[in-house]
Amino acid sequence: MSIDEFKQLADAKQSSLPAPLRALWEDAKGNWEGAHEWAQKEDTSSGAWVHAYLHRKEGDPGNASYWYRRAGRPFPKSSLEAEWDNIAAELLGPRATGPA
Question: What pLDDT, on a 0 to 100 scale, did the predictor assign at position 99?
Answer without folding.
Answer: 43
